[in-house]
Amino acid sequence: MALIKVNNRSLGTGAITGDILPAGSCLQTVSSTMTYVSGYTGAANTAYTVQSASSTDWATSITINQNNKILVQLNLNVAKDGSDANIYYDLLYDVNGSGSYTNVAVGDTSGNRSRHTGNIRSYADTYNIEESTCCFLFTPTISGSTGVVRFKVNITQRAGGNRAFAVNRTNANNSEGGSVASSLTATEIAV
Questions:
Q1: C-alpha 148: how far from chain center
Q2: Contact (Cβ atoms closer than 8 angstroms) between residue 54 and residue 70
Q3: Interval 60-117: pLDDT, tens
Q4: If you write DSSP's letter for every residue of 70-113 in order, what string do you get?
């Protein structure tokens, strides 16, 4: 087997570690494609955790080294019925299963506006699905040498009254309707 060197340092038996790769290197990537279709009907300001199966939160986890960054990318598909729901989403994470979730990013405080990661406001059509994507680079606080960072997505209906919306499917359930997939990808970046 040929000797492999990175930054003039030999790699032992195929092991690539962050201590020999330059800052900004991608150390690992995990991705979760979610095809489960789910529907929600709720009063204004009710948050729902996006599901990957019945009663199962859609979650993606990555174990990273302390002080490294995570590049997280979300592709979320949401539809609504004719009731014109106004959907916001929050990309949340916790560290080491603490159960204490924090937003990866939200907008600044501005008057009476709510603060979220993103918005999906499709037009009221039972055949329409809106795709929203976000991408953030951040450094989670890890107390040990490594930590497991777990991501989940909450969606909140902000319009008044009970409004219906769906993830990964149209509200129309016929040959013109459809179902799609959403994805969440996390990449550890060396510092």
A1: 15
A2: no
A3: 999 999 999 999 999 999 998 777 778 899 999 999 999 999 999 999 999 999 999 9
A4: EEEEEEEEEEE-TT---EEEEEEEEETT-S--EES--PPP-TT-
pLDDT exceeds 70 at position 17 = no
- Where b means 16+ CB within 10 Å and e means fewer, 31-48 reads eeebebbbebebeeeeeb
Structure tokens that stand for 168 in this block: 């990964």
- Quick one: tokens of 109? 């405080």
Q: What is the CATH number of domain 21-189?
A: 2.60.120.1340
pTM, rounded to two decimals: 0.88
DSSP state letters, 144-182: SSEEEEEEEEEEEE-SSS-EEEEESB-S--STT--B--E
